Each structure stands twice: as C-alpha cells, then as structure tokens.
Amino acid sequence: MMQSVTGSPPESLDHYCVVGHPVAHSKSPWIHARFAELTGQRLLYDRKEAPLHGFAQALAALRAAGGKGCNVTVPFKFEAAALATTCTARAQLAGAANTLVFSDEGIAADNTDGVGLTRDIQQHAGFDLRGRHVLLLGAGGAAAGVLGALIDAGCAEVVVVNRTLVRAQALVKRHAEIAALQKMQLHACPLIELAGKFDVVINATASSLQGDSLDLPAHLLAPQALAYDLMYGAAAQPFMAWAREHGGQARDGLGMLVEQAAEAFFIWRGVRPPSAQVLAELRQANA
Ligand code: NAP
To answer: Which of 20, 170, 192, 252 counts the most CB atoms within 10 A of its CB?
Structure first.
C-alpha cells in the first residue's frame, strides 16, 4: 500500500491536497495515492490544515505554489463555493463545494458528495433509491451536498430535520424548484413532529463527533430500511447500532468517501479510478 504523501512535491508532479480544520484524520491522501498508483497518474496529494479564519489565504498559498486543485472538508465547504470563480450546477445548488480546480482563470468549484453518496447506496449497497421515502438528518455542508443527488436519484420524498430548523428550511427552499420539477415531495420538519416511516434514514450530522446522541424515535424505520451514517469508524457506531436494534440495515460512510474522491479524481485527471477495489482495500485496512 502507498503511504500518504506529505512535503513539497517534485516539480514534475501535479499537486493536490485536502484542506480542512481539523484534517489530520483524513483518509483522502491514502485514497488518492492509491487511485494514482492504480491508474498510473503522476501526482502528489497531501493534507493542509487551514486556520479557522484563514481558508482564503490557504487557497491563495496553494495556488501560488502551483497546486492544481484541492478537496475541501469541514468547515470550509460553504466558503469554498463562495470564493470560487465558477461553480458547477450541483455546487451552486448545494451552496457548498468539496472539489476545487485551480487555473489561470481562477477557481472552479464542484461538489462530489452527492454523487458519492448515491453511488455507494445504489452501486455498492445495491439499494435502489427510486420511489423511496428518505429522512435526511442535518443541514450543514454534507447535507447540502447530498440533497440534489437524492432528488436526481428519483426519491419520492425527502424530509430534512436539523437541530437548527431554519437551516433545514433554507436548504429545502433552495432545492424546492428542482424537487417540484422531479415531482418529489420535499419539506423540513422538527424532529419531534416527524411522523411515518422512512425507507432510508441518512445521518449527515456531526453529533457523534461531540459524543451526542440524536435521540431518534424507534418508529422511523420502515421494514428493511437503510440507515446510512456519513461518518465511518467509531463515530458511526452509535447510529448504526440504533438502526440494527430497530430492524434496519446499517451502512457507514466509507463508500461515500471513496466515491466522492473517485469523482474528484475524474474531474482533475479525466480518468475513472477502480473505486470498488479501493473501497475493499480500505475496509480491509480498517477492519
Ligand atoms: P457541518 O457543516 O459542520 O454541519 C454539521 C451538522 O450537524 C449541522 O446540521 C448541525 O446542526 C449538526 N449537528 C452538529 N452537532 C449536533 C448535535 N450535537 N446534535 C444534532 N445535530 C448536530 O458539517 P458537515 O460538512 O455537514 O459534515 C457532517 C458530517 O458528515 C461530518 O462528520 C463529516 O465528516 C461527514 N461527511 C462525510 C463524508 C463522506 O464522504 N463520508 C462527506 C462529507 C461529510 P446545526 O445546524 O443545528 O448546527
């Protein structure tokens, strides 16, 4: 296995990185190093922790050093979209970006989180999203990134619940037109008012990072429902255990992580990496 690469790249190699705060835990350097190795692409990918109020300066430094692009993670995804010169339709809809391409013209922003999630659910987990009733927990950068892809995937309904209700309402408002075009029901709701059962419950909150429980009622899961936590490793375990306890099938966000990275790699390099192989290797390495 390749190690993640750090330090200044030789001039002949294109340089990418992931920018966040914190970022030390990120598996993206390992994933992109493996993609590069398997596709014969010559590049270096490392991590860069930016100060909480220093994202724009960190981007400027990466560009000045000749970087070709970067991934963006918590908490800079909204700022990344706002700073970009251009945004793809999906990044604009999300109002958040996780993939940036640097050029002389400026910064082009995209968001690959949504396609990462739906590819993992549909291709790796074999779960068809068409016609499904979905509960989306959270309204931060990750939830914003995945809602458009859930609409595209043909879900029948998405209900967005968030600790801060106004953020869920704003997210719904931004997606209302496209949801109506797809004839999908979309609304925001406080957790306490949730009724009915869902085929898919997606945890896109950061609650477990703070050791908090979401206190979800047991009635939420339809039989054989998919409960998907965008987190992975220890952080995903409480939500996944809750799902199994109540008859759901549980899945963590490792597949989404690999698939959003694969889409970013394709944007940068024009080559699709063997994501299923890399996901299998990552699962084995983390078993
Ligand atoms: P974010 O922008 O900081 O948003 C955090 C969300 O979690 C907000 O909706 C926030 O609610 C909610 N939240 C935080 N603490 C909570 C608590 N104690 N109880 C209930 N809700 C709480 O973060 P993000 O970018 O959306 O990321 C969310 C998580 O998804 C992160 O842990 C990230 O690692 C993960 N993620 C995974 C992937 C992947 O590829 N697998 C991709 C993207 C993100 P308020 O609005 O009320 O603050």
So the answer is: 20
Tell which CATH classification among 3.90.660.10, 3.40.50.720, 3.30.310.50, 3.40.50.300 matches the domain 114-252. 3.40.50.720
Judge whether 183 counts as a catalytic residue: no
What are φ and ψ of residue 139, in 5° steps?
A: -145, 30
Whole-angstrom Cα distance, residue 83 to residue 140? 18
- Decide: residue 104, CB within 10 A, 0-12 exposed, 13-18 middle, 19+ buried: exposed
In tens, the pLDDT along 202-221 reads: 999 998 777 777 889 989 99
CATH T-level topology, domain 14-111+256-285: Rossmann fold (3.40.50)
**Mutational test site, ligand 1, from 74, 209, 283, max ligand atoms within 8 Å of CB:** 74
CB 175 within 8 A of CB 148: yes
- Assess whether the region 14-111+256-285 and the region 114-252 belong to the same CATH fold: yes
Model pLDDT for residues 76-125, shown as the tens digit of each residue: 999 999 999 999 999 999 999 999 999 999 999 999 999 999 999 999 99
pLDDT tens by residue, 258-270: 999 999 999 999 9
Computed on alpha carbons and rounded to an integer, the radius of gyration of the chain in Å comes to 19
Of the residues 77, 173, 183, 197, only one is catalytic, namely 77
Per-domain residue ranges of the chain: 14-111+256-285, 114-252
- pTM for this entry: 0.95
